[in-house]
Write a structure and sequence with these properties.
455 residues; alpha+beta; four-stranded antiparallel beta sheet
Amino acid sequence: MASPAASIADRREHISLPSDEILEEIFLRLPTPETLACASAACSTFRRVITDRLFLRRYRKIRPPPLLGLISDRGGGFHPAEAPHPSARLARALVDAADFTYSFVPKPNQGWLSPWHPRDVRDGRVLLDCRVPGKTFRTAFAVCDPVSRRYVVLPPVPEEDIAVQEGRAAELAPVLAPVAEDEDERSFKVICMVHYETRLVAFVFSSVARQWCISASPTWSSLGTGRPRGFRNSSAPDGCRGLSSFDCVRGCFYSASPWMDKLLVLDTRRMEFSVIHDHDDVYKMLRNMFDPPAGQHNMQYRRRPGQTRSLPAVVGGEGSLELLSLVGANNPNASPRVYHSSQQSNGEPCKSWRMNIIPLSGSYDYFTVGAAEGFLFLGATKEDRMGQYHVDMVVAHDNPYDETPLLETWDVDYFSMELRTSELTKICTMKKSYFNHERVHSYFGFPPSLSTPTI
């Protein structure tokens, strides 16, 4: 008679796990990345199937990575989503696993440079820059993966030949290009848009070729427009910030920042610039109705962080571009709201605008941060949450040469608004001073246990 132990061993020999193909189909039906991470911890076979790059690519198409937090470009580091946000647990795991101080990225030997600062975030990668103060093109770039701690320091942008013809660049705006379907997920491209007197130039760095090239250089007149008057380092009362604010939708970058009646578009698949004219006359009308006139902010209303930044944001919808415009944000006599309009996917402006007004809580002063992955991002302050008043010059970014007057500090709440549902969800709170040009980047990703190196 066989012993009980021998019977159990015999039965185990006949038990086999389903094939990898069947397991993949099962795991694709798991509802959240958190449950997928739990399944990957069950056994080595599950983990091997789940962490395979091809499987994760299939899973991302069905269930896009969740929002885990925000990255501030002024030395603020990573701010994880806070409870009760649904991604709070995953965000805390990311904080424990990643290095958002970028201490693992060496600075190039080009004289004294500022610390690394984030300029763009996409697909788990962070685009960094550091520069000699006051020198537009004494700037170094690097792309890193904070989870795997891998990085690439880019060579200098070769702009000398153009600078001889055009003179000094007015602005330099770097972005990370989205990865195409047929490209290796570990490859990347950096697009550096440079604003000159008569033209706009796109320098492109490819991680495959490991060098820069000029992919587009149209003149402002060929785009059917004049040179934009708003620069990144100006404080224009209408919110213009040069080329400093881009939203990416289906392989195209959109910016409403250079002008208030046009959209600047860069198609990264064809590397072509274009301008969409008269994108939202109704938006301008509403803004004039509900916002105080330019120049009256200082006289009638106290300025708060981001108060001049109620620029439209572009979000990708199904078969159309969705333009979300914040109006009435700085006027105590009007309730803040988001004006939602659409544009056909063929690139031609809509002739009739869909009037969809999304009301916001009147207890906040809101400003737009940007848009990504079907979400609009807003910052918000309250009068009763002003922090300590500072009268002295303070040292910023641990840089003894960069003195910035911080007159007031505020507790700023950051929210996401999902385009599909119009639901407003609080992400986190940061302490901020008065600013015009700070960019806050959204970080979408999977739990560290499911993350594969992106470089």
